[in-house]
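ok trying this again, last paste got cut off
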Amino acid sequence: MDIISREDIQELMDMQGDPMISVYMPARKVGQETLENPIHFKNLMLEVEALLRLRGNNEGEIRDLLSPLSELLDDGDFWQHQEEGLAVFRSPDNFRTLRLPVAVQASAIVNNRFYTRPLLPMLHSNGSFYLLALSMDNVRLFECDRHTCQAVDLGDVPTSMRAALGDEQLTHTLNFHTKAQPGPGGERMGIYFGKGSSNESHKKEDIQRYFTILENGITKRINQSNQPLVLAGVEYLLPIYREKNRYPHLVEPALSGNPEDRRVEDMHCEAWALVEPLMNQARLDAIDAYHILRNDRQASADIREIVPAAWFGQVDILLVGMVSKVWGQFDPETQAVRIHDRRELNDEDLTDLAAKFTLANSGLVYTYDLSEMPDGTPAAATLRYPLRGLNYSVDDEKYDQKNRLK
């Protein structure tokens, strides 16, 4: 399957063009049922064709746009290696497929930007997080979620103390090896060579200098993600790195032991056990915060207020109820929000648009079952400052959110 990061979702959100095609479908993973995958996909392609004709695209344009999708239909290997869900994105300049770890509702949407709302659970409920395996000789960073764990290319970030400090700066210190013989319990211990506390002090200073350089690189690499970071390393190294850390989402518990002697799969499993309760608690806290702040007009469950607020960067946390959609249009120049009973041409899901604006302004987005949402609304938000004084206008049509859940 494919790891889907906050950056991936924001990249898809930021792409614009005409037309932008988004297709989602549940998929079959094993057995004869995998033969149903291309059949379901072909039916969704027919929906896309109809939508393109309604938008005024001619037959040649439609054929060119759908050509890579048509090629997928004949790719037997592609359909044999699916996960629970599939997302396909196509524009005149882009084509991308994503294998999803969770099932999604079948849908075909054509607009001037990609539809990303089904991907929002990947931000938190699927448990995106980082795992940093600390070592003197081979630092590794992994981007993980509930199901997968993949190495991150660190580029020019030094992944060993020797690479960070150079040979000459290390010659005055004692030698340090993390690849020693196993101690009690099978865990390899760090071994120090040298005489007296002076040598040990020099060695700690080297490690501190190394971790300062390493931490700068790691934080620069992940600082926009808001994802938890779990450390793995021998006990001696963990507090030194914590002392240098500036990343605000470092998880307090860590995985103790030499990561060079451990399977990535095992570390991934243990790290997920650490972050899952934190992620669930953050979602619950967001609902509690909504109920506290709404009395001071610092929270809203009205999509007509939420979309302009998100556009202005006022939304701190956006709560989105999955499945239901709110079709309409938003004009950034006038701040006008228009909501329709049924989807009309050029409409978009306003909850998806609110999520795009929220993430672009460094806010958080959590997803919930509709039964968990405040008053059963499709969207709610806590705000960075109260609503009064916000300059926005709304459509004159009456709108009762509870009657617009589709």
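PB: full thing came through this time. The CA atoms of residues 63 and 307 lie 35 Å apart.
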